[in-house]
């Protein structure tokens, strides 16, 4: 990918001068006072091709309007017990900031089950965290650190990853597609920790399929990654599953509730949920908020993403077949054959 220049951004901006008011309004909600930097994200996502970046952005703005994304932070998942069930099965949280001020987002890939609610609740929850990050967390970090901050780092915990994760491919692909198309270039680096054999075997097959831009962002760390991560963040910002080798399950780590960044009792999730409830109360409503998921359209994945998902499925299947064969041979040995 070539360097994104100021002239490219200005040319892109000029192409957007004639869009209608509703598109401009939702774009303002996206850029939070930094239009040029946000145009740069879409240019990067399309390798500097201005016409492709323009189409991507316009498609994103249409998606936001059609799915009422600007209002999604005023649409709580209720009742609270349902939201707690979503949080317990979709392990995502924020543990702190890097030394440069980038939010540290933790994702419990291996132990997320996505089995306590419909796919629509998980999509809604994911988009709400994206919007809260972009409209609240990043602007607050920008003000605190005195420079524009518009990306985060993600630490992906593979603890507990099993072949049964194959059942989650659909929802994970949907979430990934939404992020790729509508929240491009929002993650500076992905750190993968606590990777079991099943991940390592699958990674060897999937890595060559990724775009170079994506490959450069992914770092697979040894063990829990503590020592490497402490180079870019303080100990207090480490997710609980990175704090010591052999820390055990990222879901049931023996830490205080606030230390477990996945827990609904964690400060980040409490602030997010309170924010959504306040926005719902402030919004003029004819009728009270009713229980029910907020359905968001999620597009078909791009051909490259679909190929990656298919590769993961086939690799998991191969590993599963190997495991069955190994067990069969082991049984034969035990029985003396």
UniProtKB/TrEMBL annotation:
Pfam families: CRAL_TRIO, CRAL_TRIO_N. InterPro entries: CRAL-TRIO_dom, CRAL-TRIO_dom_sf, CRAL/TRIO_N_dom, CRAL/TRIO_N_dom_sf. It comes from Daucus carota subsp. sativus. This is CRAL-TRIO domain-containing protein. PANTHER family: CRAL-TRIO DOMAIN-CONTAINING PROTEIN, PHOSPHATIDYLINOSITOL_PHOSPHATIDYLCHOLINE TRANSFER PROTEIN SFH2. Residues 79-239 form the CRAL-TRIO domain.
């Amino acid at each position: 990918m070539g360097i994104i220049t100021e002239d490219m951004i200005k040319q892109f901006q000029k192409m957007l001068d004639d869009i209608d008011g509703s598109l401009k309004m939702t774009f303002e909600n996206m850029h939070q006072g930094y239009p040029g930097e946000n145009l740069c994200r879409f240019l990067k996502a399309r390798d500097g091709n201005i016409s492709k970046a323009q189409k991507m952005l316009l498609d994103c703005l249409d998606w936001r309007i059609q799915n009422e994304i600007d209002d999604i932070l005023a649409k709580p998942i209720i009742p609270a017990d349902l939201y707690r069930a979503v949080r317990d099965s979709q392990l995502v949280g924020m543990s702190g900031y890097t030394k440069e001020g980038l939010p540290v987002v933790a994702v419990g890939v291996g132990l997320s089950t996505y089995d306590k609610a419909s796919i629509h609740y998980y999509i809604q929850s994911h988009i709400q965290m994206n919007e809260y990050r972009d409209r609240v967390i990043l602007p607050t970090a920008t003000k605190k650190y005195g420079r524009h901050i518009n990306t985060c780092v993600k630490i992906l915990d593979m603890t507990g990853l099993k072949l049964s994760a194959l059942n989650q491919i659909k929802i994970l692909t949907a979430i990934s597609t939404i992020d790729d198309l509508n929240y491009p270039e929002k993650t500076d680096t992905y750190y993968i920790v606590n990777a079991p054999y099943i991940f390592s075997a699958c990674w060897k097959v999937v890595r060559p399929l990724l775009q170079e831009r994506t490959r450069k962002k992914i770092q697979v760390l040894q063990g829990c990654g503590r020592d490497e991560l402490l180079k870019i963040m303080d100990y207090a910002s480490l997710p609980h599953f990175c704090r010591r080798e052999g820390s055990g399950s990222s879901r049931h780590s023996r830490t205080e509730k606030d230390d477990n960044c996945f827990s609904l009792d964690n400060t980040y999730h409490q602030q997010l949920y309170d924010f959504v409830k306040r926005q719902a109360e402030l919004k003029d409503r004819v009728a009270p908020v009713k229980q029910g998921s907020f359905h968001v359209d999620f597009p078909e994945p791009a051909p490259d993403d679909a190929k990656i998902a298919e590769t993961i499925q086939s690799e998991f299947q191969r590993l599963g077949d190997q495991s069955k064969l190994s067990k069969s041979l082991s049984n034969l040995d035990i029985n003396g054959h």
